[in-house]
Amino acid sequence: MTQLWPAPTAPGAVRATVPVPGSKSITNRALVLAALADGPSTLSAPLRSRDTELMAAALRSLGTTVSDGPDGSWLVEPGALRGPAEVDCGLAGTVMRFVPPVAALAEGSITFDGDPRARERPLGTVLDALRALGVEVGGDALPFELRGAGGVPGGEVTIDASASSQFVSGLLLSAARFDRGVVVRHRGGPVPSLPHIDMTVAMLRDAGVEVDAEQPERWQVSPGPIRALDLAVEPDLSNATPFLAAAAVTGGTVTVPGWPARTTQAGDAIRDILARMGAEVRRTDAGLTVTGPAALTGIDIDLHEVGELTPTVAALAALAEGGSRLRGVAHLRGHETDRLAALERELTGLGGAVRQTEDGLVVEPRELTGGTWHSYADHRMATAGAILGLRVPGVRVEDIATTAKTIPDFPGMWAAMLAAEDAAVGSGARG
Ligand SMILES: O=C(O)C1=C[C@@H](OP(=O)(O)O)[C@@H](O)[C@H](O)C1
Ligand SMILES: C=C(OP(=O)(O)O)C(=O)O
């Protein structure tokens, strides 16, 4: 049985400055672009966590050199892409959806597999799209084999990306290296996480790639070189949210340094969410500072664009005074776990009043009690349990180590936050 992590109860209002490691989404896009670029790239302050190490390993196995530079940076030297290779996707959506189009440019047999849950995550759309673009690939889920021919004809393809924005991002990231580039059209229900596609487009353009994204639900990448990158990776704003939530639920103050003034990261939406729930939110040159109110108010919000914040927002909602409704996130059923089912089950297990709807959750305020919080190998479920534990004594989070998917040392960062010199012991926290 996996060890249980006793989630620390806040000794008072949490007051801390918490530097947060680099963005998973930016790091993994940058690694892919750097592997396909026309020269060596430098990524400074990249995220070094399971998802990004898996991406680096996948690209290495295809012929790219990814080595350590000074101060934790990554140096990426593109090499001739070739198999045979075995790609371990772990549970990383970015690896399972971004790497197959890269592998299609290689020569040889490349097999893909991942964690048991990764075999259930939606992937067929990407593999169908590659077949339509002239790639020989079997299967419609992990594990599968792709036989690279050393190039991809490319062209036009219509996909249903309503299950994941990553289907679109994955095709666009490699498409400048396809003979004819790509035109991707979406047909189906609304595409989730559109800011993540905007991030893909922005990073491609920064690398000198011509992208036409003028029409809704249509993206065109022209064939051409990808310029080498010299990129400083922003802090991961979604990973910052549990720490900001710590201020919000304890009436404390937490600053995350280096919060970008402008960003394509979807996690920036947390500023508005926390403000709507009653927190004071200020962005200055020092970073983003959140000060929690005496009591959080509930929220009715469509999280379609920023689904990855749902576990944090559900934890906040469960500790708020009014009821909340989280909408637009049916696609979370295909994330690391079925997040709607997991949040309903685990919050209910602590005495919460939570029920799933067709596309989200309804959360009513209740006094919560301690108990085991299961993580389902989902890093954001684990961090949601930690947030609850600040106010609810006796929460034990199963498999806290799963946070290493996107944060290298979450328990250490959490402990440091609670032990910070500026922590005001004995005041402000409720519960
Ligand atoms: O492209 C990306 O970096 C991501 C896109 C989103 O995926 P979905 O569109 O599948 O929600 C997001 O939830 C995930 O954490 C990261
Ligand atoms: C959905 C997420 O991850 P992935 O990139 O594996 O899809 C997430 O980090 O919340």
Automatic annotation (TrEMBL):
UniProt binding sites for 3-phosphoshikimate: 24-25, 29, 164-166, 193, 308, 335
Top-rank taxon of the source lineage equals Bacteria
Q: Which UniProt keywords apply?
A: Amino-acid biosynthesis, Aromatic amino acid biosynthesis, Cytoplasm, Transferase
Q: What catalytic activity does the UniProt entry give for this protein? A: 3-phosphoshikimate + phosphoenolpyruvate = 5-O-(1-carboxyvinyl)-3-phosphoshikimate + phosphate
Outline the extent of the Enolpyruvate transferase domain: 10-412
- Main location, first listed in the record: cytoplasm
For phosphoenolpyruvate, which residues are the binding ones? 24, 93, 121, 166, 339, 380, 405
**PROSITE patterns from the UniProt entry:** EPSP_SYNTHASE_1, EPSP_SYNTHASE_2
Assembly behavior: Monomer.
Could you say which EC number(s) this protein's record lists? Answer: 2.5.1.19
Q: Does this entry carry the keyword Transferase?
A: yes
Indicate what this protein is called per its UniProt record. 3-phosphoshikimate 1-carboxyvinyltransferase
UniProt KW Transferase keyword: yes
Which pathway does the protein contribute to? Metabolic intermediate biosynthesis; chorismate biosynthesis; chorismate from D-erythrose 4-phosphate and phosphoenolpyruvate: step 6/7
Q: Where in the cell is it found?
A: Cytoplasm
Active site, per annotation: 308 (proton acceptor)
| Purpose of the protein | Catalyzes the transfer of the enolpyruvyl moiety of phosphoenolpyruvate (PEP) to the 5-hydroxyl of shikimate-3-phosphate (S3P) to produce enolpyruvyl shikimate-3-phosphate and inorganic phosphate.
Q: Which GO terms describe its molecular function?
A: 3-phosphoshikimate 1-carboxyvinyltransferase activity
Q: What class does this enzyme belong to in the EC scheme? A: transferase
- Family indicated by similarity: Belongs to the EPSP synthase family.
Q: Which InterPro entries match?
A: Enolpyruvate_Tfrase_dom, Enolpyruvate_Tfrase_sf, EPSP_synthase, EPSP_synthase_CS, RNA3'P_cycl/enolpyr_Trfase_a/b
